[in-house]
Amino acid sequence: MEPIPFWKAKRLDDMTDAEWESLCDGCARCCLNKLEDEDTGEIAWTDVACTLLDGEACRCRDYDNRSATVPDCIRLTPHEVRTLPWLPPTCAYRMVEEGRDLYWWHPLVSGDPDTVHEAGISVRGRTVREDDVPLERWEEHIVTWPERDPGERRPPRKRRRE
């Protein structure tokens, strides 16, 4: 009998630091800048990435010290996961909190950190650097793909050449 994966057996609050960090699938959707309508509170996603995001690797260039460079960077905690309205529907933290299982492309399930990119979930190749776009032009970069959940869609199988 296989042991139950930690994300099915534990609440977010009970995870070790290593388990918590491994829940991040590396999609980097949370590193996209969002705009909030002051009147309605509605959130609009942009394809403008945080200055620290390596858009190819989909990782923070200075993860341990990110708050020093980007003071409004939000460190995810179980409380934040429960209260932030803009976490993408595919976010593993959100999915675990909601009692859902991880998708096949999550590195903890697939065993491969590249499946998140192969499945088209990550921001790889879809962003512009915030240093290259003036704040007053961010509205021109509003996108809807980060808030979509592609579900269990699998990539086409590669055909063997005979």
Total beta strand runs: 6
How can the largest sheet be summarized?
4 strands, mixed
The proportion of residues in beta strands is 5-15%
Mean pLDDT: 91
- Described by the principal axes of the CA atoms, the overall outline is globular
How are helices and strands ordered from N to C?
HHEEEEHHHHHEE
Distance between the termini: 38 Å
Describe the structure.
- By secondary structure, this protein is α+β, with helices and mostly antiparallel strands.
- It contains 7 helices and 6 strands.
- The strands form 2 sheets. Strands 1, 2, 5 and 6 form a 4-stranded mixed beta sheet that branches. A two-stranded antiparallel ribbon has the order 3-4.
- The longest helix has 7 residues, at 17-23.
- It starts with 5 loop residues before the first helix and ends in a 19-residue tail after the last strand.
List the keywords.
162 residues, alpha+beta, four-stranded mixed β-sheet, two-stranded antiparallel ribbon, disordered C terminus
Secondary-structure topology with pairs:
Elements: H1 6-9, H2 17-23, E1 32-36, E2 43-49, E3 53-54, E4 59-60, H3 66-69, H4 78-83, H5 92-97, H6 107-110, H7 115-118, E5 128-129, E6 142-143
Parallel strand pairs: 2-5
Antiparallel strand pairs: 1-2, 2-6, 3-4
Summarize the structure.
The chain is α+β, with helices and mostly antiparallel strands. The chain has helices at 6-9, 17-23, 66-69, 78-83, 92-97, 107-110, 115-118, and strands at 32-36, 43-49, 53-54, 59-60, 128-129, 142-143.
